[in-house]
Structures are given as structure tokens and as C-alpha cells.
Automatic annotation (TrEMBL):
Residues 28-136 form the VTT domain. The chain crosses the membrane at residues 37-57, 87-109, 115-137. This is VTT domain-containing protein. The lineage of its organism: Bacteria, Pseudomonadati, Pseudomonadota, Gammaproteobacteria, Moraxellales. Keywords: Membrane, Transmembrane, Transmembrane helix. It comes from Acinetobacter bereziniae LMG 1003 = CIP 70.12.
Length: 141
């Protein structure tokens, strides 16, 4: 059940919902009854899959951007688009960051980024973030 909770929070946090998967991860790490590696893998997979939803929405954004429920502000979209235009697919390395990270993954879809490259870079970025959180939690950093 704990792994499912972590997966859902990581997935939701990456899909532009105001969730904090980091807090769930640290809470589970504190309990010290779960495999660290499995926690990191589950969090990464959930977060990457959530970003894949954003990429897909980006592909179809023209259909959705005027909907009431669309969770990205015009300001954040423009900010992410400028970053993406300036740095190209390398901007996906910032997909882990708060505020602009999720819009960047959406913009990648809008800009028709190749899915395989998107998946590779976002997995590195998101997995790296969870590893750094673990290293901070364990006192290595």
C-alpha cells in the first residue's frame, strides 16, 4: 500500500497537480521498513509517467488550453516555452524543478519532442532528484 501511495503521489505531482511526492518519500524513508531502492524506483516511475501525460497533453494542447480545468497558467507556459526554445531538449534536465519543471514537459510535447529522447532525459532528471533527496535524508549530502 505504501508503494502505491508513493506512486500515486509521484504521478500526480508530475501531472501539474499540487502534490508533494518528496514528502511522501521522506515519510516512508523515516519509517525504515521499505526498500530504499524500490522506493526510489517507484517514485521515479510514477513521476516519469506523470510527465508523459504532460508530454501528451502538449501534443494536444490546442484542444485543451482554453478548458477551465487546464492547470497551467499562460505565464508559466510562456516561461517554459522560452526556456525550451533557448535550450532545446536539454531543458528537460530541469523537469525536476518546482514551478517550471512540469510546464517544460508539457512544452516538450507542444514542440513535438521525440518521445524516446523525452523519456530518457526526464527519467535521468526525475530519478536524479529522488536520489539526491535520499542522499540528503541519509546524511551523505
Amino acid at each position: 500500500m505504501a508503494y502505491l501511495l508513493l506512486f500515486l503521489s509521484a504521478f500526480g505531482a508530475a501531472t501539474l497537480l499540487p502534490l508533494q511526492s518528496e514528502a511522501v518519500l521522506v515519510g516512508l524513508l523515516v519509517q525504515a521498513q521499505y526498500s530504499v531502492y524500490l522506493l526510489l524506483i517507484v517514485a521515479t516511475i510514477g513521476n516519469v509517467l506523470g510527465s508523459c501525460v504532460n508530454w501528451y497533453l502538449g501534443l494536444k494542447i490546442e484542444q485543451f488550453k482554453d478548458k477551465k480545468w487546464f492547470p497551467v497558467s499562460e505565464k508559466n507556459m510562456l516561461k517554459a516555452e522560452k526556456i525550451y526554445q533557448k535550450y532545446g531538449f536539454w531543458s528537460l534536465l530541469f523537469s525536476w524543478t518546482p514551478v517550471i519543471g512540469d510546464p517544460i514537459t508539457l512544452i516538450a510535447g507542444l514542440m513535438k519532442e521525440k518521445f524516446w529522447r523525452f523519456l530518457l532525459i526526464v527519467t535521468i532528471a526525475k530519478g536524479g532528484r529522488y536520489c539526491v533527496i535520499y542522499l540528503i535524508f541519509s546524511g551523505w549530502i
